[in-house]
Design the sequence.
């Protein structure tokens, strides 16, 4: 097959691993790069052997680009992606799909009208650790899933990040920042969420940056920094999730899924690999579930690879806009529930993405 021709918009830190991985997969080819800072785009193009360095508008309109990989800041996700689909391009956004739910819905509607596809990060659920957990659940190793607990707890980013203001603005916070990893992993294992209940708070109204170069700057906190939520899944399972920038220390699992016949410890969904453990009814100890899947290293971009093959084969891609949009609706529903003191019934219903076979997509990896 001819490689899917990709144009990357945004040359921030996250772009490096996309350049590396998508540049070596045989089904993808990076043909252009863009940034608001054209010099930055030119440097990235030269470093990664990309033919074209353009402005974002030029890249989106360029006839050689099949798919726009949108690595801009979250507030720009909607405008860049919308422009891409209106120009007849497929688009894959970094997380979250958009900041605003209405923008996500418009993006998905326009893509259908234009006959192009929308994809969205994270694609960590396609990694070996999470596909191993998915396979265990699909085999019935823990029986029917009945519930889950998920935790992302830390004390924020102002002690190490060079420019942490965004994390405390509207559109930031621990849920929109890290929630996509956890909720996408749960959607992969358990499926669609139908109802959400949540409680949120801002524990510290200001944050003082202690990292360089903005040491001493005071940030006004605009978004909840401690979110506790309950999810009723379509299959009847009840999940609980807590994300926080307010917790100093904790000792809890990233994700644990409970079933009628046992429990499953699932690795950190911010990574692709990790150890899966199971303890079935009657077992005295936890056991490691053998990981026979690939993509256990930093495989960011495997969602784009799967999307390229899906476009060729005419099948649904796994890291889809519908999945990212459903996750976005769940995240917003936690704060909406807290604000209104009501359960929130979701408008979107998700078809669980297909499991990734143990050796699927391997033919598109570089030899050796």
Sequence:
């Amino acid at each position: 097959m001819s490689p899917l021709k990709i144009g990357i918009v945004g040359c921030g830190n996250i772009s490096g691993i996309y350049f590396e991985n998508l540049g070596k997969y045989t089904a993808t080819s990076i043909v252009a790069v863009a940034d608001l800072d054209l010099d930055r785009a030119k440097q990235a193009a030269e470093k990664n052997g990309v033919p074209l360095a353009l402005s974002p508008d030029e890249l989106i309109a360029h006839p050689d680009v099949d798919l726009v990989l949108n690595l801009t800041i979250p507030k720009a996700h909607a405008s860049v992606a919308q422009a891409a689909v209106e120009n007849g391009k497929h688009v894959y956004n970094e997380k979250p799909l958009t900041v605003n739910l209405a923008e996500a819905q418009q993006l998905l509607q326009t893509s259908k009208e234009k006959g192009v596809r929308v994809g969205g990060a994270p694609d960590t659920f396609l990694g070996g650790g999470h596909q191993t957990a998915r396979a265990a659940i699909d085999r019935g190793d823990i029986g029917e899933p009945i519930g889950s607990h998920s935790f992302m707890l830390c004390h924020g980013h102002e002690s190490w990040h060079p420019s942490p203001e965004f994390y405390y603005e509207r559109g930031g916070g621990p849920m929109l920042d890290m929630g996509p990893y956890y909720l996408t992993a749960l959607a992969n294992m358990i499926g669609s969420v139908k109802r959400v209940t949540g409680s949120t708070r801002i524990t510290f109204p200001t944050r003082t940056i202690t990292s360089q170069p903005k040491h001493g700057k005071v940030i006004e906190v605009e978004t909840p920094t401690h979110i506790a939520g309950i999810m009723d899944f379509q299959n009847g399972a009840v999940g609980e999730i807590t994300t926080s920038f307010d917790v100093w220390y904790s000792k809890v699992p990233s994700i644990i899924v409970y079933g009628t016949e046992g429990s499953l410890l699932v690795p950190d969904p911010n990574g692709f690999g990790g150890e899966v453990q199971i303890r079935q009814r009657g077992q005295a100890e936890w056991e490691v579930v053998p990981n026979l899947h690939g993509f256990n290293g930093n495989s960011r971009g495997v969602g784009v690879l799967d999307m390229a093959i899906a476009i060729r084969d005419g099948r649904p891609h796994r890291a889809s806009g519908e999945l990212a949009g459903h996750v976005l609706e769940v995240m917003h529903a936690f704060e909406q529930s807290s604000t209104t003191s009501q359960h929130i019934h979701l408008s979107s219903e998700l078809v669980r993405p297909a499991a990734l076979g143990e050796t699927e997509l391997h033919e598109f990896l570089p030899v050796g």
